[in-house]
From TrEMBL:
Homotrimer. It comes from Echinicola arenosa. Residues 184-309 form the Aspartate/ornithine carbamoyltransferase Asp/Orn-binding domain. This is N-succinylornithine carbamoyltransferase. GO terms for molecular function: N-acetylornithine carbamoyltransferase activity. Carbamoyl phosphate binds at S47, L48, R49, T50, W75, R110, H147, P148, L149, Q150, C272, L273, R300. The gene is argF'. Pathway: Amino-acid biosynthesis; L-arginine biosynthesis.
Amino acid sequence: MKYYTQFENKSLADQLIQKALEYKSNPFMDKTLGAGKRIGLIFLNPSLRTRVSTQIAASNLGMEAIVLNMDKEGWALEMEDGAIMNQGKVEHIRDAAGVLGSYFDVLALRAFPSLTNKSEDSEDFILNQFIKHSGLPVISLESAIRHPLQSLADMITIDEHKNKERPKVVLTWAPHIKAIPHAVANSFAEWSIGCGHDVTITHPEGYELDERFTHGATIEHNQDKALADADFVYVKNWSAFNEYGKILCTDESWMLSEQKLSKAPNAQVMHCLPVRRNVELSDEILDGSRSLVQHQAQNRIYAAQAALSNILK
Ligand code: CP
């Protein structure tokens, strides 16, 4: 594996889940695999979990991790090929990625979408410019359209907590005060469908996700109906895709609460964090026995370790 940027196939997903569980039992079993190697963690956007869990994963493999908060500490990057750089951007991606390519053995990048330029975001333009110009193996730390390390951690968490071979997994839209990217929802749908779960996606009309990620899922606009008999409920806000980046609904009744789960008594609840308490999810759920959010966050370490070790090997 040279690039870890998306779901590839069930066989590789199963292999990564298995490896991550082995690392969870014995984090230092490959403690010299990355000896003498360096990973650059490049952040164009903020992060808590992704930043720290990936550093711990690299350290567990004996690898040096260097974090660059490019949005705050680097030069403003021009991304367009052939640009005449007579405005505010100081350094071209060709030059910056080329330099990073000579400093590191593996590059990892977080690059959120603009939520204004739909075609560039949909093509994962920034991630692909780094891939093209660095020449290195690349791990996505969340791109414009996918968050594959989060999704692998989510699949590990479902694997650990499922009570049946093919659980019913419901991805439900939740309210939010800001326009939020689609990456976590897209990626969760892509991985959960790819891993063979029985997936239902529920959201208000107008919040349809890009169909590239939802093929094979049931779409149900009635949230109560969608939640019935769920084994896992994944809560996430996203902005509209068709009316790109817009907030079309702020209906508070979409917030997940205990009352909403009355027809799903065994449902376990997931969220990637950070979460807006009592906007997306109620305190009673987050602090109650249904919540898997801390398990998901812990599994981010072993997801990153499994992906990184696959690249190193
Ligand atoms: N879930 C997640 O990616 O968290 P951070 O944005 O804090 O990295």
